[in-house]
Amino acid sequence: MMRTAVLLAAIAAVLAVFAAPAGAHPKALRTTVTVAASEFKFVLSKKSAGRGVVVFKVTNVGAVQHDFQISGRRTRMLSHGQSATLRVTFLRKGAYPYKCTVAGHAAAGMKGVFTIK
């Protein structure tokens, strides 16, 4: 009896996925972006992504400390060779500015805009 109920629930779940309307996403989109921080710039592996979770893998390849801030979230301060991972969920399309929050670094060029399509 219990096995039958579990089997029926599994079948219903599979049918629900196939019955989803066109354009519906049963699984959230996840994009990984590598970010290299140095004096005084960021190099991102991708400049845009679709809505969903974006995982920023930030590595400081520069000589001085840097961090990475986007959409109200930021990494810890990273010394040369250190890395940090930042997961940000973007629900809306748009342009999201990013920057290094160390005084003077954004003004020197450590900033940009990440686009959600």
What do you see in this structure?
- This protein is mostly beta strands and 117 residues long.
- The protein has a single domain (25-116), classed as Cupredoxins -  blue copper proteins (Immunoglobulin-like).
- Helix content is 15%, strand content 41%.
- The chain has one helix and nine strands, in the order H-E-E-E-E-E-E-E-E-E.
- It has a five-stranded mixed sheet with strand order 3-9-8-5-6, with no helix packed on it. It has a four-stranded mixed sheet with strand order 2-1-4-7, with no helix packed on it.
- Strand 1 and strand 2 form a beta hairpin.
- It is globular.
- The N and C termini lie far apart (48 Å).
- Residues 14-26 have low confidence and may be disordered.
Q: Brief overview, please?
A:
This protein has one helix spanning 2-18, and strands at 30-38, 41-44, 48-49, 52-60, 69-70, 73-74, 83-90, 94-99, 111-116.
